[in-house]
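Because discrete structure vocabularies remain unfamiliar, it helps to consider an illustrative case, giving the amino acid sequence and backbone structure tokens:
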Amino acid sequence: MAPNKTLCLSLLLAAAAAATLAAANGGKLSPAYYSTTCPKALPIVQSGVVAAIQKETRIGASLLRLHFHDCFVNGCEASILLDETASIATEKTAVPNQSVRGYDVIDDIKAELEEACPGVVSCADILTLAARDSVVYVQSTVFCHAWMQLGGPSWEVDLGRKDSLTAGRAAVNTSIPPPTFNLTALAASFSAQGLSFRDLISLSGSGRFFAGGHTIGVARCVSFRGHIYNDSDIDPSFAESLQQICPRSGSDGVLAPLDLKTPTHFDNCYYRNLLRKQGLLHSDQELFSGNSEADSIVRTYVNQPSVFFKDFVQGMIKMGNIKLLTGSQGEVRTDCRKVN
């Protein structure tokens, strides 16, 4: 691991370990929730995430997206991880979730946590920590301005979430915004989750991933086909290049990077792509399409990456607290794929 990444992650863990708050009781969350019951929890999650990303860089984006898809359906309670049973209709097979990945990484982390401290760390907290650790690890120190260097975003995660006892498959199609949404529909989708318009710009450009999260990751041809063939708010040469790999029919699974410049790093280059009308998805380009407020925010993120990082962190914290189960609500699953 690069020294700067190691230092950043170590500082985050040290800050959590040194928190003066006692482990949370009742319905309260705290960064120190596991400080006495499972003191190795954060290092175990971090090492699992880092190992997975070192094996496959793309998995960092997948873990961030997994967290998003969990939180937007009945809250951050790990319902997306539940497999199909006679009494549970899994969320995994709902159309918006069919390309979601990273379940095996969460399984591996959970198995190690169960060895260290059985029945203590919830799957919902693992998802939240894994999303944070993914962003920290894949952060870039080189931005779209070649002369600018800045450390990436990091934040302290409040812990103490509980896991759901059921899944919400029926809510997936209505809760996860699709890549065809316009700006008005995207704003309404985020508002329904208690997230602001600014959260929308920093976090979510489509149901396929995050906008800020779109600084890393890929999308399938079936998700951007309509944009490259039917939309006018797209750079013609960019559209033509994508049409070479994504025909009008077939090749639905062909992948293209959501951020052309730095597809495996978390940075602000995604927003510069929008200025050039090179957003991969229709809902991406909607963030810079003539709305004065949205356009102003995008330009700010291009010119002031520190503002983007600040807004992204605030949005992640807010999203990570959507409709939580805490205290006596829910349970701590011993296997993230099934209820106890």
Q: What stands out?
A: The first helix runs from residue 3 to 17. The beta strands are 218-220, 255-257.
